[in-house]
Write a structure and sequence with these properties.
The chain is α+β, with helices and mostly antiparallel strands. Helices cover about 40% and strands about 20% of the residues. It contains 33 helices and 44 strands. A five-stranded parallel sheet has the order 2-3-4-1-5, with helices on both faces. A four-stranded antiparallel sheet has the order 10-11-12-13, with no helix packed on it. A four-stranded antiparallel sheet has the order 14-15-16-17, with no helix packed on it. α14 packs across α15. Keywords: Repeat, WD repeat. Pfam families: NPHP3_N, WD40. It comes from Trametes cubensis. This is Nephrocystin 3-like N-terminal domain-containing protein.
Amino acid sequence: MPLSLVKFGRASPPPPTSTLPTGTQPTAIAGGSRGKDLANTSLSLVISALEATKDLSSACPQLQLAVGVLLTVLKAYKHRIDGCSQKYSEAAEAIETLLSRIQSLNKILKKVGSDGDCPQALQERLANLAGKLTEVVNAAKQVQSKRWILQLINSAEYTEKTESWIKMLDWHIRSFVLEGTITLELTIYQGLNAINTRFDQVVDGINEVKEGINELNTLANDVPLRKELRPVIEALLYNGSSVHVGCYENTRVEVLSSLCSWLRPEHPPLSDQPILWLYALAGSGKSTIAWTIADRWKRDNLLGASFFCARDGQRSNVNCVFRTIAYQLALRFPEFQEQLTKILKTDPDLQCIEVRQATPPFPACVAVVIDALDECTDNNAVSTILKSLALYIDQLAPLKFLITSRPEENIARGFLLQSLDENTHRLALNKIPEELTKRDITVFLRSRLAAIGKDFDLGASWPAPQRLENLVGLSELLFIFAALAARYIEDQAEMDPEGRLTSLLSTGNAVATKGGSTTSPFPILDALYIQVLDAAARKLGAILKSQLKLVLGTIVLAEQRLSPTTLDVLLGLSSGTVRRVLLVLSAILIIPDRKDDTTPIGIIHLSFPNFLVDPTRCTDQSFLVRPRIQHSHIASRCLATMKALKYNILGLEIVSEHDRVLNSEITDLPARLSRNIPAALEYACRYWTRHLCEAEVCEDLLTALEEFCTCHILHWLEALSLLGCVDSAVEDLQLVQTCLKASIFERSYELLCDAYPAVHRQTQSLRATDVPSLLYDCERAVRAYYPIISTSAMYMYLTIALFAPLDTPIRRIAAKKRATLAALAFSPDGICVACAKTNGTIELLNAHTGAELQNLNSHYGERIEGLSFSPTSKELLSGSSDGTVNLWDVATGANLNTWKAHSRYQCVTSVAWSLDGSLAASASNDKTVRVWRMSSPEKMTVLQHGDGVHNVVFAQDGDLLSGSHDKTCKVWDTRSIGWDTETAIEPIRTLEHDSVVLRVAVSPDSCLVACGLLNDEIVLWTKSDGQRVRSLQGESEVNFLAFYPSGLLAAAYMGSPITLWDVSTGARVKSAGNVGARAAAFASDSVHIAHTTDGQLHIHLWPSELKQNAIRTTSIAGKLEQLAGRPPTEDREPLGNPPTSVKAAATSPTRKLVLAVYKDELRVYETSTGRCMRTIEHSSGGYAFVAWSPTGRLFACTGKDHARCRLHARRAVRPVRIGRWDDPPGDDRAERATVVFHDSLPGG
């Protein structure tokens, strides 16, 4: 196709062409012009095919544009064809080939267009094809742009180029199609693989479901097993709280191979021995080897159980080892689990299991790993674990035991027992050839230091070979030295690996040069520890440096690993102190991230705690920890932390203390525990006894222990119950008792100055204390009531309070810890006393027998401060800390109404009824008094104070008095309240004081007002004109006031005895005992009093039962007792036997007379003088019922048989009427009768 015959310029429009169907081949043309015609026809077909391509390539605009430009060139070329028939003939074949490629391309594009969606990968390949077509078009355009004379001259060359362009177009299209084919086959292959993979995943999912079901069955069986066996989960593989790491790659190869050979049965005689003891000194890598081989056996399904001992928590308890191993074996082997469960069901209290009772056939090659046996607390001459194994090793086959430890004396002695000696293979790490250990340490250090050098850009040759060899030589073949050295060198805070390596080598070489001048078995390791500590101390300020020793001592002696946040709280340090102190000790401690408040601080190796407490190794006194002194400090801090314990620490909604709330029934128990018993408090509860037993018990610690035992010993048992660890309480209490009894005697102990700069010895004997006896009582209570204490923390208090021996201190403490009384009130008829508790419940008790009549619970959870009975004694008002006032029916206990009278969460401090029962009032901390009519309680009048109001009371004349924190007592005229208007009323009188007014009382005649103040003073005022009469000075703040007849005022105090004052003289008449009352109430008969002392309710006659002072006695009750033994007077007729005790008494409505019932007579006394006005013969039983008529002219009293009631006129000697109950014999209704006058009684 000679381009020289084409005149390039603007292309004329090509003749119309038609697109051939796909697959149509050009027809051969004969004759002289056959080649030219053939090329022309082929080119027309190509143009038609490309036009189709252009239409089909809309999904790829780049390809569409390239094809359009190519069409333009080809059409111009076809239009200018002329001559050179043989060249046309040669080009026709290439054009036909190109046509077939274009038709294949169109099939692909047509498929894409019909789907309506072009994949991204295809779009990219089309774009790539367009780019290559554009390259060909651009080359053709360059030729086309030349003048026609040049094209004619170079026609042969241009013809060859045209053929090459056609072939290139053919190649690009063929490559595109081929690439698509390969891509399709690859996609199909990958899709099939993906399908197969998904099928595999489905199969795996089904298997996981099966495993999950099996795991659920295991977990279902795990719950009772865990409860019975109490395994130490922290001691299991992958669950240890200490730092466990595996052996470094390509190290300890020979040792691990030997352990695998021992386990396999195909390696006799090594595999014939069921026990392998791997032992070496500290720092040799025993635990690392144990963890690595246990991990390998676990993955190979050969590990039956493991126990990684450590000096923290239960992992050091030797009694936990075998029960934890049994627990793991039971989960792994169902047949063993079945036998074990049967044994536990037969004897739930079983402490040990005979091997012959539960040894089903285990499969071969089941390993049990016990690591660091020397870390268990075992003071026996021969290891307890080894003695047990020695007894039953022949019956434990095919189980095999790998035990690692230091060669401690009691452990070495255990392996000398005959049965163990014959069945144990010993592997001493120190007897492994030194070159092997040195090789492994070299491999480790070379790799670690190379990584450090890379991190700090120190070059590939760092460190120099001789320096690495020097460091390896200083390790003394201890892997722990190599690990600590690497951590010390890479300290990110220091950022100077080269300097640290130089310093380390210098110190180590200096110590090595001294040789035998030190008694330490690890002089270079000790020097490394001191170097790390000294470098850290230099970075700390004076305050943090002084706390470094305290923090380190607590970390190394704590019973379990603690987080930095927990340590801050336990040690009483400010938040973040422990992190700031330990930040510079990353070489020997693992400090969790700042945002992590739960992960404990890790110790790189246990050789560090050993170093700190050993004076022969830690020669720097500023770092040496003296265990007994440190334990004393930790014990003190534990006792201080446990001051946060309290009754019902979880804040459970308990309606009554009789409710048996089981721990297992508490919803969200773990979440509640984490909120209310944080980690520091939990640690203190679990381990204070252990620290105390290791401490020097000085006077301060003993005082703190006394306070704990007096205030929080039962709270501690509650916390243990909720935490599920009551089982350890008995042993812990026994240990503390033994410790204290030994401490009572004279002993030597060391006193700690600020940072142990100077320790001196002093002899001192501890004073005698009741703490051991109290702890013994607590121990007995735990033993006796263990099932209750362990299952119900809240029911424990009631159990101990009711069933513990009467004379034990623990019972008295339990009584105090029950919900204490906050308010008291007598009913006007004297039958009932209402007791409001701090838990929001109200108990209605019989004032004579103490029997519970009703229990009111609407306020539960809110503190109740105000109680008041209606004048009829049928209703009760109560005000609580949530700002509400409740109205109760006394007979049924029903809640009749609730008023949200005051601001929410503003405590209602006092409530009161008017004497006619028409009005009620409430006082609150929201600075208001609310008054409402009982007939229409929706309308309330608000009376304002300048501060919270503490007390409100109605006078006989209807006035309302209120005492406030604003140091005033205001008198309000309730008769002037406009109930239908919102007009505020003003007080008719304001009594101002120098102190807060806590309590107010009004005399029966409404003449005097008594105000009890916060400064222990009682101020008397005249109500009518507000004149101050006198002041009565007490010893503590006033808690309750009540006027008695004959000018007496009874006052209850918070911290001093209840006192009776003569208001006319200001003299103290009587005092009740030597203690104060948290709450008190005086009955309307002026005889009975109720008050709380040490959390207990006391109801008795007063003041007749109390010791009298030298001042004259003017109380009515006192007169009754005095007159009973006084010689007859002209006003009293002798009736034989003098009366000895009062059976009943009642005050007349005018309060001027008192009727007293004795065994053989009735007497009427004048209240003002105490003179006997009349004596009437009367026969009474063990008790009697008596009442006055509303007018005071008549009174009635039951007789001896209680079946008759005699009605007397006040001035008559004989009864005017005798009434009778016609009840059948044995009916007890007469025993419960109460005499009440009806308003319509004639003459009444």
